[in-house]
Amino acid sequence: MPDGYETLHIDDVPLVAFDEPEVPDWRPLRHHLGVGAFGVNAWVAKAAGEQAIEPHDELPDTDGAAGHEELYVVLRGSADIEIAGETHALDSETLAAIKSGTKRKVRPGPDGVRLLIVGGVPGKAYEASEMTELGAPDPAAGQPAPVS
């Protein structure tokens, strides 16, 4: 990180893509930006019917979750987010902040969605999950992340 900052275009970060429709594609922003204080990644679903964010609750020790609170921000497109059984529309002017333990999933709108998700455990120093380290296997998909 030169001079204490980094800039990049999201499309310059290699897409981690999977062939299974239930496994969302993502871009590992945290690593490429050199961020260590919080988790941040971009998740991509190109069209309606694809999985944008799999159902999960971020409870610690379940499926590798760390207990993160998460902030969901739509960068492009739109989506429906189901939070605790209630569906809410997400667009570029609507944010969703979700506590650990609250079930959530995201389905893209008709033109797809690009989501920025920021997360961390309240009151604790951030620890990167193995999944966000380049070259580490993705435990949810059983496939390695790209090494570039």
Name the features.
mainly beta; 7-stranded antiparallel sheet; Jelly Rolls; two-stranded antiparallel sheet; 1 helix; 148 residues
At a glance:
This protein is mainly beta and 148 residues long. It has one helix and nine strands.
Question: What would you say this structure looks like, in words?
Answer:
The chain has one helix and nine strands. The chain has a domain at 35-121: Jelly Rolls (Sandwich). It starts with 24 loop residues before the first strand and ends with a strand. Strands 1, 2, 3, 4, 5, 6 and 7 form a seven-stranded antiparallel β-sheet that branches. Strands 8-9 form a two-stranded antiparallel sheet. The chain is mostly beta strands and 148 residues long. A hairpin with a 2-residue loop joins strand 4 (69-83) and strand 5 (86-90).
Structural class of the secondary elements?
mainly beta
Q: What is the chain-wise order of helices and strands?
A: EHEEEEEEEE
Percentage of residues assigned to helices: under 10%
Q: Which CATH class of one domain?
A: Mainly Beta
Shape: globular
Question: What fold name stands as the CATH topology of one domain?
Answer: Jelly Rolls
Strand tally, please?
A: 9
Separation, N- and C-terminal Cα atoms:
16 Å
The CATH architecture of one domain is Sandwich
**CATH superfamily grouping of one domain:** Jelly Rolls
Bin the strand percentage: 35-45%
Radius of gyration: 15 Å
The whole-number mean of residue pLDDT values reads 83
Unreliable parts: 138-148
Largest sheet: 7 strands, antiparallel
How many alpha or pi helices?
1
